[in-house]
Amino acid sequence: MENVNNSYFDGYYKDIWKSIIPSELTVKETEFIIEYFNLVPGKKVLDLMCGYGRHAIALANAGIEVTAVDNLSDYITEIKEAASENQLPINAINSDVMQFTTDAKFDLVICMGNSFNFFNPEESENLLAKIYSFLNEKGQLLIHTWSIAEIAIPQFKEKSWAEINGLKYLTSSKYLFSPTRIETETIIIGPKSTETKIAVDYIFSLAEITTLLKRNGYILKEIYSIPGKKSFKLGDSRAYLTITKEGHH
After folding, report:
1. Which residues contact 227 (CB under 8 A, 6 or more apart)?
2. Is the full-model pTM beyond 0.70?
């Protein structure tokens, strides 16, 4: 199998994410975030693992002060350019989330796009502790996931394939235990080259997440499958977990 420079496919990935995520979803998620967490201009949000910045830019357009962190420099460069062109209050930082540190305090931290599930149980504990230190006294946390057990088990498929924007994706997945996780090998076949990528999503049940949060000073408040509109039920395809520091209601 031919291996190619990652930049060839990573450029496609960015464009594909932009094409397959409806702009209406970003609008609805942003409206939910602003309304649910009572954000007004001047409030401070930390967008961890921000990707290409669809939430960071949308929130900044509403006057929210956003710090956007991602380990991919291309994403951060793109966000910086958008912030400069539109005079948006965004501080975009290229950093691995586990290495990121700041003395700033935030009203809200968001982990969107299943990013929380990139981390094993020990790493998740460390990440939650870091986030806790970033939040102000009444700070809150939003986690968006599609890899909780209540979603992953009903929807698990060992094999699947798709064709998007001229690329073919052939995926093979394994559901593994201790720690519980799904390991997925994806073969991407392009017009001239082929590449294989490996992804790992760690799986937590809602009970495990509740315990994990409690142990690190948080309370799980509500879970939605449609932002602010529909409470999560077994088999829904995504979940939005609204979380607060313990003792804050």
Report:
1. 28, 29, 31, 32, 33, 36, 240
2. yes
